[in-house]
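Run log, item B.
One chain of 369 residues. Sequence copied directly from the ordering sheet:
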Amino acid sequence: MSKRKKKIKKSFKGILVIILLFLIGVGALFIYNKFFASDSAAVSSEVEKLMKEENIDSTKYSETLEYVLLNNIYDEKYLDEYADIEYIDNDNFASILTTFLPKGYSGKEINYITKLSDKNIDKLSELDYVDISNYYSFKNFDVLKLDRYNAYYEDNEYTYEDVITYVNIGMDLPVYTDTTEVSDPDSLLVLVNKYHYLPDGYEPTDLAYLDGYYGNSVPMREIIVEPFKELQAAALEEIDVEFMPTTAYRGYSFQKTLYDNYVASDGVSEADTYSARPGYSEHQTGLSIDLKNTALGSGIRLTDDDYDWLSNNAYRFGFIIRFPEDKTYITGYQFENWHIRYVGKDMAKIIYEQDLTLEEYIDLYETQY
């Protein structure tokens, strides 16, 4: 019996070895076909014929080469470049190849270009060769600002990613230059700053009023009234602080009087660090509110603890701190712990969680490049 058992065990082991070798063979064949087999094996007879007509060695085959041959846009000068270009199933692939290879872009640079937006591809097609290798991967890259990006990068110690955003915002230009009139002043995301001004005579059509700290009725956009009341109630419940508005909407004439008084007192340069010029004030949108802790004396708006709560909770109600302390170089204004701006809950949450200014958020999430 023992000899018979040994024979059975040997037979069983032999079968296992055969199965194992079979599996190894199948696996090896799969790996070879997937990674090592010549691409020429996959070449259709039509492509193979075209390659022979052009005297192209089978080792030069690539999907991009197949594409240019079948679409009659093959150019012998770019044979080696085709091998570096990743084929994309895109309607403008042929246009990209025939436009940018003659301009001197390498196959690898063509791969950068295919990742750009259609807008940027169109802009780039109008230019002679430029090196975009430092910028193409950033979604807010604008081809037409390339020279400004390069100059700003040379003059500062920012990353290429930050350079793109800062130049897009306008930080490489003097304030109140190259200014633009905002196209949709009623938008909750309207950007009004030292580079964007409101249309002449603009006034919100949906102003509502809340009781203010000074016993006044404070005008603001109706859409922000309820969110602000919720913020007030939460502050009272969570930290026992009553926040009251001092001002919110301020019209052009009101802002002009304020600004002119500041200029008369401190001069233009200093006034520009803490007060907006008329037409460039966010208060004119009716979406901003200046706050006051009612328990404090007239010289103090908020305590550090008040601001700590506000800066970490305002987003819950759709508000942001518009001029944070560590972003004055972006906003262009001195830190104001009392100034909040309504943008809506979804946007406020992103701005809070990613520590952005409104300028940065709009450039990164709203503007199409």
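Observations after the first pass:
- The first helix runs from residue 2 to 36.
- The radius of gyration is 32 Å.
Flagged for discussion on Thursday.
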